[in-house]
Amino acid sequence: MSSILVVDDERSMREFLKILLEKCGHSVEAADAGHTALDLAGRHNFDLVISDIRMPGMNGLELLASLKQARPEMPVIMITAFASPGDAVTAMKEGAFDYITKPFKVEEIKRVIDSATSRKVNGREPSSTEFFSDIIGQSPEMIKIFDLIRRIAPTPANVLISGESGTGKELVAKAIHRLSRVSDQPFVPITCSAIPESLLESELFGHVKGSFTGAIANKEGLFQLADGGTAFLDEIGELTPIIQIKLLRVLQEREFMPVGSTRTRKVNVRIIAATNRDLEQEVAAGRFREDLYYRLAVVPIRVPPLRERIGDVPLLVSHFLEKYSRLLGKDVRTISSYGLQVLMEYDFPGNIRELENIIERGVALESSNIILPDSLKLSSHRQSTLQQGSEPLFVAVENEEELLERGMEDILASLEKKIILHALRIGDNSKMRAAELLKISFRSLRYKTKKYDID
């Protein structure tokens, strides 16, 4: 049984929810206004709050902000009118667990409430890695993306994922679909730049027999195949002006017309788009429709390049070592300290895709169970820069005699200083940013920089 607070200025709605939830075995309190709800929440340890968004005085979004500030871990479900999906998206961005749209079905309410009240396992929140096993990362940048995915996945909002090639934009799209309410429906991807312009319209919207030379039968397009599920449009910035207009119609009217047909077809599909271009600049240059951009970018997600989340490199290396040792039938278990240092100082113009390729090649070339620097092939420009020689981040100790001569404390102190200097370089000399990268407090970092005489 859970303790639930219901907040709504309409008496009939409060009474309906109270009766329904009490029949399900929950303990329920009700409030007719936001300030009353805050007072009750301050005096009782509720497991869940259900609040209407549109209320006089303190509205639901303001209540949500106050509740999340006081108890960030407490789930809050918002109630919104069918005609105001924008409010729901805003609520999810601000930390709401989910939302219910009026008019709603009893089974839907029960499902959302059961999900919210059972989200803790053994008294703890599920970790990011449990939810996003296909996306590797523990850096602050990725944790923020995981949190945003969890918030917006249950909504029908369109999503625009931006980022350089090789950053894993499709993995983000798949994670959103997997955590959505239509996860049992199709996820249909299409790369807009990989299809000739003359065929793209047919691939997206389908065609009828005889509509053009070679159309010997009716063909279903992407949107028809994805009906009820998710359509993933990669490299959306490559669309021609004509296709942009047709896509806008799908977003606005939820309908399309196959090539050669005179009849429109209704479709219910969520669109997730991705691009490695700056679409705002494309809009300013007149190459991309502004109205289409805002329809696609209801929720924008920027996936950072690997050079901005360099702290994830060791984790990714470990993942790819395991993957390619298994696939290639090798027993390469680790990478040398200097080999890892070389990767940590590399800027990865090809991002995660390039790192994966580097590790796959390294596993294939190695005859021992450890990858040495000689087996790592980086871009020639960056490799020559490394060979000219910045001071190594990690000090390789070749034998026990050297270890004994230098002393363990001296080696550890030297290593700690180099790691701090490396974090400061990555963080643009910001001690606050370096502390976040090192996962230590600002006070600890300040003490260590004084200890090692680091300006």
How does this model look, in words?
By secondary structure, the protein is of the alpha/beta class. The chain has 21 helices and 14 strands.
Provide a brief overview of the structure:
By secondary structure, the protein is α/β, with parallel strands linked by helices. The chain is about 45% helix and about 15% strand.
SSE inventory with pairings:
Layout: E1 3-7, H1 11-23, E2 27-31, H2 34-43, E3 48-52, H3 60-70, E4 76-81, H4 85-93, E5 98-102, H5 106-117, H6 128-131, H7 140-152, E6 159-162, H8 169-178, E7 187-191, H9 197-205, H10 222-225, E8 230-234, H11 241-253, E9 255-256, E10 265-266, E11 270-275, H12 279-284, H13 290-296, E12 299-302, H14 313-327, E13 334-335, H15 337-344, H16 351-365, E14 370-371, H17 380-388, H18 400-406, H19 408-426, H20 431-438, H21 442-451
Parallel strand pairs: 1-2, 1-3, 3-4, 4-5, 6-11, 6-12, 7-8, 8-11, 13-14
Antiparallel strand pairs: 9-10
Helix pairs in contact: 2-3, 11-13, 14-16, 19-20, 20-21
Structural class call reads alpha/beta
Q: In total, how many beta strands?
A: 14
If strands are numbered along the chain, what order do they take across the biggest sheet?
2-1-3-4-5
CATH architecture of the largest domain: 3-Layer(aba) Sandwich
Per CATH, the class of the largest domain reads: Alpha Beta
Largest sheet: 5 strands, parallel
Averaging pLDDT over every residue, what do you get? 82
Query: The CATH topology of the largest domain, please?
Result: Rossmann fold
Number of helices: 21
Fraction of residues in β-strands: 5-15%
- Report helical residue fraction: 40-55%
Outline the low-pLDDT stretches: 120-131, 380-403
The CATH superfamily of the largest domain bears the name P-loop containing nucleotide triphosphate hydrolases
Count of separate structural domains: 4
The shape is globular
Q: How widely separated are the two ends?
A: 56 Å
Cα gyration radius (Å): 27 Å
